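Hey, can you fold this one?
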Amino acid sequence: MRILAISLDLDDTLWPVEPAILAAEQALDDWLRQHHAEVAAAWPIDALRGLREAVSVERPDLAHDYTAQRLITLERAFAACGIDAAPVEAAYEVYFAARNRVDCYEDALPALHALAARVPLVSISNGNADLARIGLRQHFRHCIAARDCGVAKPDAAIFHDACARLGLAPENVLHVGDDALLDVAGARAAGLRSAWLNRHAAAWPAHAVPAGARADLELRDLAQLVHWLDRHDPN
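Sure. Predicted structure:
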């Protein structure tokens, strides 16, 4: 396996995403209570979460764009309360700022420093995390989000976009992620090598993943990836 670059998933690969989402929902609720109490009363956190899920179902064309889904959700919440000139962008900024206050896994930062010193890194994410806001952008040659690409993992196009930006054949790129279907099966189907970051020693979800889609590597953390690369130095 000759690996000349590595692509990395973000959410639940470099940091746990659920705490950031919960904090973002709380920050938005706090802001609404302060500035638009009637919206906060009509749309508490659980109700607003349900509205977003409804938007997701109604707009499958936006399955790759969580930002658009969230903006539509806010538009509907304000409209339901009869508020003209709704401050949707301001409300979203409150949410988005908190969503990008993440706590990286202990192994993530040392691994990023070590990996980026060895091979080009590119991020491939279905989410809308902003690496510049988080403070990790300097480690990545390119950042590819489903929203910008127009498709989401496991679609091969998003992986091929990464390879094209790197100027490398898919077989020379190793994709690393926590999701067996989106990351591992998606990368393999696109011709990339794959590594399953299995932090919690979960069983391989054979019922949900196509046969023959097992990862080339299985890792318990990103430190293992650094050690593996040390043993398979492309230089």
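DSSP finds eleven helices and six strands in the chain. Let me know if you want another pass with a different chain boundary.
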